[in-house]
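Q: What residues go here?
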């Protein structure tokens, strides 16, 4: 079981100066604040999480109805609170090789599978009514493996709405079976940012060739795209927009939602949730396979950090809704 996570990024006084070196793809000068990442006690990996607890007024639109959406564990109410879990996929085979991956569809490594299972243990007491994943296999594997650990034991089922026939052919004809299912919506908009001509290149070799500062600019700046790829800003135009248009309405309706996606598509969503500036988001780093919990209440997102695990007591402290859900799970087992 993973140890506790520090949810707080430790603000450092160190500042980092952008290179004035011009590049074919962009030029930037000036100071940015560099934020060290909080560290995880076991495993030694880092979870970067800038400490700004912002709020967000969602656009209120009607949630769309899903075929197997009925009879969840709670009655959705517009005024209720809901849980939002964000998770970056576990380690992929190209993460392991240190290659720029972007929209290339690469599966998880055995370590990535373990990370997804571990993530599932951390969120096994938190209600989940709907799952959103990117269209990439590493995010989908992560979502599915994590859900295998959930104590409610509902079955995640991918919704196939790419054609009328696909929708019709994947219908479920038992209300009872539907009740035991969780709809999984796949959306290309949640894919990793398109890394352009860096896809498939080794990150270290690219840094050796173009310089650390140039590569850092491509990887972490807000508005400078890698060669023929997407900047974080461009990625946000689809990923954060999808979140606002499709996922927020579900939260407004009281649905508990998990989103399994990618380092940069999630950075764009967290930038929106935490109201980070284009300078602050530079230092936001997400580790593979670490779930992050937000509570959505009264139109605001409250960041609760990363759940520690099934035995932790703190889940009781998150909210009354989550505490009740945990008690219900406990009573189902005993
Ligand atoms: O696409 C990739 O290579 C990774 O998923 C994210 O890479 P980054 O940390 O270089 O943005």
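A:
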């Amino acid at each position: 079981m993973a140890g506790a996570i520090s949810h707080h990024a430790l603000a450092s006084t160190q500042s980092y100066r952008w290179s004035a070196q011009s590049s074919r793809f962009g030029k930037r000068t000036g100071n940015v604040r560099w934020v060290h990442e909080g560290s995880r006690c076991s495993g030694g990996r880092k979870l970067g999480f800038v400490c700004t607890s912002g709020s967000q007024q969602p656009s209120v639109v009607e949630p769309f109805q899903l075929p197997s959406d009925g009879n969840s564990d709670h009655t959705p109410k517009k005024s209720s609170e809901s849980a939002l879990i964000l998770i970056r996929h576990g380690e992929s085979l190209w993460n392991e090789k240190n290659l720029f991956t972007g929209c290339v569809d690469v599966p998880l490594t055995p370590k990535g599978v373990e990370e997804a299972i571990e993530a599932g243990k951390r969120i096994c007491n938190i209600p989940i009514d709907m799952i959103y994943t990117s269209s990439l296999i590493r995010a989908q594997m992560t979502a599915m493996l994590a859900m295998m650990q959930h104590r409610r034991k509902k079955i995640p089922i991918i919704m196939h709405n790419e054609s009328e026939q696909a929708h019709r052919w994947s219908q479920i004809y038992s209300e009872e079976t539907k009740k035991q299912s969780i709809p999984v919506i796949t959306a290309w908009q949640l894919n990793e940012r398109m890394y352009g001509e860096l896809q498939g290149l080794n990150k270290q070799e690219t840094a050796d060739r173009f310089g650390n500062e140039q590569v850092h600019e491509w990887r972490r700046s807000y508005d400078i795209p890698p060669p023929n790829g997407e900047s974080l800003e461009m990625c946000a135009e689809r990923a954060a927009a999808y979140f606002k248009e499709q996922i927020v309405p579900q939260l407004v309706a009281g649905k508990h939602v998990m989103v399994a996606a990618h380092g940069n598509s999630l950075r764009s969503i967290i930038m929106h949730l935490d109201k980070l500036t284009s300078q602050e988001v530079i230092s936001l780093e997400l580790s593979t396979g670490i779930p992050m919990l937000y509570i959505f209440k009264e139109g605001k997102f409250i960041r609760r950090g990363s759940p520690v695990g099934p035995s932790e007591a703190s889940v009781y402290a998150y909210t009354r809704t989550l505490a009740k859900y945990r008690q219900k799970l406990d009573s189902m087992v005993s």
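A: Context that may help when evaluating the design: Residues 100-102, 192, 195, 219, 262-264 surround 3-phosphoglyceric acid (CB under 6 Å). The chain is about 30% helix and 15% strand.
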